[in-house]
Structure formats: structure tokens, C-alpha cells
Amino acid sequence: MLRTFFPATDIHGRSFRTRFTRARVRLRRLYHGHSRTALRFQMAVLIVDLAIIALFIASPVLRETRWFLYIDYSVAAVLALDIAGRGFAAREPLRWLRQPFVLLDLLILASLLMPYWLFNIGFLRIIRLWSISQSGVLWRPLRRHGYQEWELLARAIVNLVTFLFLATGFVYTTFFRTGSGIEGYLDALYFTVASVTTTGYGDITLGGPWGKLTSIVIMIIGISLFVRLAQAVFRPNKVHFPCPQCGLQRHEPDAVHCKACGYALKIPDHER
Fold first, then answer.
1. b/e per residue 167-192 (b: at least 16 CB within 10 A)
2. 257 - beta bridge partners?
3. Mean pLDDT across the chain
4. Fewer CB near the terminus (10 Å): N or C of the chain?
């Protein structure tokens, strides 16, 4: 009897481990895969990120309504499911838990769970948009449909938008108080754009040493991102055609040879 009992337990245990492993692999493919289903799932996660940012922007208005906690806790529940899903799919959960983006998500979750005691730092979730941009998830549809030439411009726009929302959220969270001139999120966005473009109307300023340092950082980084955007808009027109020899991706429309290795190119007419 003992001989038949233990093998059965081992079989059931292995079956459970197999289902557990398959579930992790399936979820990992959704988060990091390239299939159509995975892309839809990743876009849904991105929508959650945007919803968290929207909640941060609307919090001052919603805070006085009876629906605020319901909305806040609903978003927190979705974020908690996302964090749990990522941890479940990670190959090394403990190592994954020590990553900066994960710790940042946990801080955001804590601010959502205790909205009346902790400052809402949901604006930091915009960093996820930048990280997704760097991973290439946003640009796969462009590459799949043959619009690779727009990727550089799209990356520059995403970087600028990410910085604008990140800087605006920091200014709004740090300097929003009575008599500061920043009476809402729109004022913080207005100040950020005025600083990034170096317009400097002077109607809204950040007081104190920290305010001046914040303004300096916003101007320096903002100008750099604007230059990158201008370079992407006005760069010379090139076609996307990988060189069979060295792999160089972009060439002049009338190129006959690869400028990197000299390999003879045969760029199709429809690429020009």
C-alpha cells in the first residue's frame, strides 16, 4: 500500500508543477512575446499605466467626491494584479523584486492604497511608457507594416512627452501649495512647457533654491529633447533596407553601395 501511495503523490505533484510551469511560461509570453495576442495584452497594460496617470491628474477634483475611493482602489487592484502577474512570470522572482521599476511600482501602489496619508506619486508611472518605448514594444507594428522610417521620430516624441509629464507631475506634487502660483495640474504643465521652450513668461515661478534648481534641470533636459525631436523631423530622407553584408539599416534613396561596407545594394523601387 505504501508503495502505491507515494508514487501517486509524486505523479500528482509533478502534474501540479507542470501546470504551474506552463502557466508561468504562458504569462511570460504575454508580457514579453511578439505574437498578436501578446501585443494586445501589452497594449492593455499600457492603458492601465495611462489610467493611473489620468487618476493622478484628476485626483484633486475627484478627492471631494464619494466615488474617489472606489476609483482609486479599483486602479490599485488592477496595478496589484499587474505586479503579481509580472512577479509570477519572472524567471527569478527575488531578483525581479529588487529591480528599480518594481520598487517604483510598489511605491505607487502604496500611494494608491493610502491616498489620504501618502502623496499620490502616480505620475511616476509615465516612466513605464519610456521603458516600453526602449524595449521596442511600441514600434513593432511600425516595423511589421513597413514604416520603420517613422520610428526615430516616434521615439523622440515619446521621450519628450514622457519628460513633460514627469516634470509636470514632480512640479505639481512638490510645489503645489497656497500662494505658490500653481493652483492646479494645468498650471504645473504650463510652467513646465514655458521652461522647456525657454519662453519664461515669469507669471509662474518656483520659489527658493530647490525651485530654481528644478527650473534649471527642466530647461537643460527639455532643450536637449527638443533638439533630438528637431533632428528627427528635419533629418535627410532615407529608406529602410538592411544591408546583406553588414546589416546597416538605413541608406540614401539613390544608394548603389552600402556606405559602411561598400556592398552592392539592390534597393527595390517601392522602397524609394
1. bbbbbbbbbbeeebebeebebbbbbb
2. 264
3. 78
4. N
Distance of alpha carbon 242 from alpha carbon 215, whole angstroms: 43
Domain residue limits, the chain: 1-146, 150-235, 238-272
Phi-psi region of 252 (alpha: psi -120 to 50; beta: other; left: phi over 0): beta
pLDDT of residue 136: 65
Determine the pLDDT at residue 5.
45
For range 242-255, the mean pLDDT: 78
Residue reference for cell 519572472: 90
Q: What is the CATH number of domain 150-235?
A: 1.10.287.70
